[in-house]
Amino acid sequence: MEQTYMKERPVFPLLMGMALPMVVSMLVNALYNIVDSYFVSQISDAAFTALSLVYPVQNFVNAVGIGFGVGMNAVISIHLGAREQERADAAASQGMFLAGVQGVVLSVICIFIMPRFLALYTDDAEVIALGVRYSTVVFMFGVMVSLGVGFEKVYQAVGRMKVTMVSLMAGCVANIVLDPIMIFGLGPFPAMGMEGAALATGIGQTLSFVIYAIWYFVRPLGVRVSWRLFRPEARMALRLYSVGVPAVLNLALPSLLISALNGILAAFSGAYVQVLGFYYKLQTFLYLTANGIVQGMRPLVGYNYGAGEMGRVRALYRLVLALSAGIMAVGTVIFLVFPGWLSGLFTSDAATVEIGVRALRIISAGFVVSAVSVTSSGALEGLGKGAASLVISLCRYVLVIIPAAWLLARLMGPDGVWHAFWITELVTAGVSLLVYRRSLRRG
Predict the structure, then answer these.
(1) Mind listing the pLDDT tens digit for each residue in 288-316?
(2) What is the pLDDT of residues 196-219, one digit of tens each?
(3) What is the distance between the terminal CA atoms of the chain, rounded to a whole angstrom?
């Protein structure tokens, strides 16, 4: 199947056709994150704290699957742009095999380490027990996450965004519907508490994978996942991981950041850890929406880069930057106007709500400028320049914000941690523009 429309259609309608299905699915996914957290918070404050502490590891597992999938997406798109069908098929086939292996390995490791990991952040036996109960069930579905994301990136690489939208939305809707049923026990289902929340998540992830698999066998695709090409070859594996590993680190670094900030904030009060937890749930509405635009851009810049259409690559970058900045501007207004209502979704404690109001207003100062780093990082991944993208993420999630949060917390108290967010976004935006422009000049 020819994908030449990726270099022939006008840039704006082309991007919208690719990105809007992803934006819709990302918004549904963001809603799932909020609803999931809301129902868990109804169990108890300890349950929500446990979920917040498990989140970094859960995010890391997702990051490995998505990051490696980004590598698959970039390599497939570049080969398609260069009209190398056999190599595109090999990238898809070997990528799916490696994704499955990674999923199994991560499931085993994460289930094993969670009791010790949770004990690093709390000595509350109830929180640890709830965290272990949730994580044991949710990590059993690690292979479904990896294979589902692998299929997602294959479909995105050939421009089949509507399939991705349907699959992701079906999984998220199933999760949202099953959450209250399995947590609290409705109809024939027993009340399973934390295990119910985890099982609802796993079932939703499995449903997404099943839809991808059925669709693949029913409808033809621009690339083939073939048993004949499953066996990894060193050259292809190296190319997949050369983009995939930096992308994994890009996505996993927020987990490191959250764990580091949890450690800093826990020294003041558990309420600050809770506020950080629900901030990250809320900000997913913004960053997942922007990420939907970026996901629509990746295969387009990869294909046009492979086809030598650098003018279209630059036009796509500018368009995505403007759209992402608009999304972040809307988010800034919402966080400034409704911080009390947003905080009240996750806690009824007046003191915690007050902390949340202050945190959301301070952090939102950096939203609009963060569009620069989000867009630049995504464009570089689409171009197959994973190492350059990693430089941006290291600045955003480690090199600037963690030292800034540590220092400012000692100078200003916990508010210093919130100020570290917008300071980091300003610094990283400058670095992002420099790295992107230098990478583009080098070709």
Answers:
(1) 888 888 888 888 888 888 778 888 888 99
(2) 989 998 999 899 999 998 988 888
(3) 27
CB 59 within 8 A of CB 259: no
* pTM assigned to the model: 0.69
Q: Is the pLDDT of residue 378 over 90?
A: no
pLDDT digits (tens, 9 = 90+) for 91-126: 888 888 998 999 999 999 999 999 999 998 888 899
What is the pLDDT of the chain when averaged over all its residues? 86
Q: How far is CA 297 from the centre of its chain?
A: 16
Alpha-carbon distance of 134 to 369, in angstroms, equals: 36
Say if residues 290 and 282 touch (Cβ distance below 8 Å). no
